[in-house]
Amino acid sequence: MSTIIDTFIAPPCHDQIETLYQDEHLLLINKPAGLLSLSGKNPLNLDSVHHRLVQTYPGCTLVHRLDFGTSGLMVIARNKAINAALCQQFSQRSVTKIYSALLCGHLDEDEGMIDAPIAKDPALFPLMSICAIHGKPARSGYRVIERFYRELENGALLPLTRVELTPETGRTHQLRIHCQQLGHPILGCDLYGGLLLPGTEQTSRLMLHASELHFVHPISGEKIEARHASPF
């Protein structure tokens, strides 16, 4: 059994968390890119969504997480009962999550489904891997919004595809590794090939944003359809 050693130190994040909605039960926030969802074991990785919010909302807890490099919508529970009710919606897959992303290259198909099981591999940490034998089921839908070229400083043209991604499951790094599997990694993704194409190495961030979150308010029973436009 190999021991996982996490050497990652997050650079300081100066962007603020944007609170989009709040009541006595929950918060809806826009997480900036470059902020951990939860504080790490290393004391240098104390700053996080949870660490910041708990100063203002004691007792608040995370229902789900976004990767360090991903921005966008998160729902935060303000007490344990709300957390349990929301976690149940996530585990029953009744929550709809839609992401905006920029992928390297031009996709051939306008839409499709990536069905590839994902496994943890301590030897490759922090990378996940596609593994039919040990992997947990993972499915992600994609839909092309536009194909375009971005002009680089040297005048070269970088082909990119803007897509909408809809994960049916919630595995770690799921969208990032599934897009790599598709042959079109997410632009700016350091772990799964999104900095390999010429002209991508200077990309400022992971081009992945949680743009929609649909769930039922645990107390009012109201259907919440939160949207936050992609910043890229």
Automatic annotation (TrEMBL):
Domain Pseudouridine synthase RsuA/RluA-like: 25-181
Keywords, ordered alphabetically: Isomerase, Lyase
A GO term for molecular function: pseudouridylate synthase activity
InterPro entries assigned to the protein according to its UniProt record, in alphabetical order: PsdUridine_synth_cat_dom_sf (IPR020103), PsdUridine_synth_RluA-like_CS (IPR006224), PsdUridine_synth_RsuA/RluA (IPR006145), RluA_PseudoU_synthase (IPR050188)
Biological processes, Gene Ontology terms: enzyme-directed rRNA pseudouridine synthesis
Pfam families listed in its UniProt record: PseudoU_synth_2
Gene3D superfamilies tied to this protein: Pseudouridine synthase
Enzyme Commission number(s) of this protein: 4.2.1.70, 5.4.99.-, 5.4.99.12
Superkingdom as given in the UniProt entry: Bacteria
Family of the protein in this entry: Belongs to the pseudouridine synthase RluA family.
UniProt-recorded name of the protein: Ribosomal large subunit pseudouridine synthase A
Organism: Ewingella americana (strain ATCC 33852 / DSM 4580 / CCUG 14506 / JCM 5911 / LMG 7869 / NCTC 12157 / CDC 1468-78)
